[in-house]
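Flp pilus assembly protein TadG: structure, please.
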Amino acid sequence: MSAMRLRDQRGSAVVDFVLVMVVLVPLVLGIIQVGLVMHVRATLAAAASEGARLAATVDRGPGDGVALTRSQIDAALAGTYAQHVSARPITIDGQPGIAITVRAEVPALGLGGPGVALSVTGRAVEEVP
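Here you go.
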């Protein structure tokens, strides 16, 4: 009787493994995707803020801020994320300022496929000469 019971359970470990992996693999891939999106978003926001600060100084202009933002994104991530960078004048609490906006799309797991669209803006109050 015990030999019959052992024979009936053969292959059950494979089935258990497959059932666990069906749940575990998408969960791990989802966590990696969220981490990648958060990293790219934080990097783009930091670069946009630095570019806005440079563009807001007395001796610099919006073009300098856009150039700095693009170079920082290119150095930290990849040039493809720095393709849509724009600067515009804004008002911050009644003071003139500059805003640099970066728009990018993070592909699924960094490989391709449907992506997550991101838009971040860095703002700074302009210096008065």
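Notes: The two ends are 95 Å apart (CA to CA).
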